[in-house]
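[scheduler] slot 2 assigned
[scheduler] job type: sequence-to-structure, two independent chains
[scheduler] chain ordering preserved from manifest
[runner] begin chain α
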Amino acid sequence: MAGSWRRWAHGMPANPLLPGRHLMPALVAIIGLMPVPAAAFLHASETDTDSGRALYVEHCAACHGVDLEGQPDWRSREANGLYPAPPHDETGHTWHHDDAMLIDYITRGGQAVLDDMGVTFTSGMPGFGSVLEASEIEAILDYIKSTWPEHIRDTQAQRSNAAAD
């Protein structure tokens, strides 16, 4: 995951002629040894996870939070009848759903999916199928999953496999 954005984000000089140039190779090596999300080894490359994070920040973070934390009081209905956007980290319920349902929910929007399922719930989740390609939606999900603890990834994978059967 070593890259120029890391040097920029941590205020490190990218020019090896600047002071500290002897530290850069060591820092790059240390950063390169940092653990990558386990999902990168399971189904997504590090590049896929990075692009998924960028897409998440661009299209999802405004509602679901940059750190996947969701909106405050996401379990309480607001005056308009909608629930705030839930977190996508392990404290939320995203991992309770199989991949096909999540992809459909993102693609068509929550209300369309819930209506087809016969669920009487009002969803404020818009559809992104006209904005994102299928591969981009999958990259976003890969990024989200890469942040979950292993036991949650395993549980969600089992649900996805059972739903696919």
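[runner] end chain α
[runner] begin chain β
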Amino acid sequence: MFEVSEKASEMIRVFLKGRGEPQFIRVLMDEGGWKGPHLVMATDVQKENDQVFVEKGLTFLIEKELFDRAKPIIIDYVESTLGAGFRLKSDLMKGSVFECDNIREHC
């Protein structure tokens, strides 16, 4: 399962507006930081080993092996007293204290 909330898709469109190619959003794993491994997003081009999802008119890419490890993936956009940003939830950090609450200002 790969899900993107309405608010997240709206904010990704804002991020992509006026940018050139590529218009694909890659979901990838960031290994570092105090949270340990967690999912993040970046713009990228499609590669041979990608799983491709089209959600709400946006194209998302993720390496097939990573998707198998992380699924289900849910992308949301949240606003809180800590700030606003994207939250990527998955089974990648299941059982972790942080439960993939990585809030970012930008993709």
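[runner] end chain β
[qc] chain β: The first helix runs from residue 6 to 16.
[scheduler] slot 2 released
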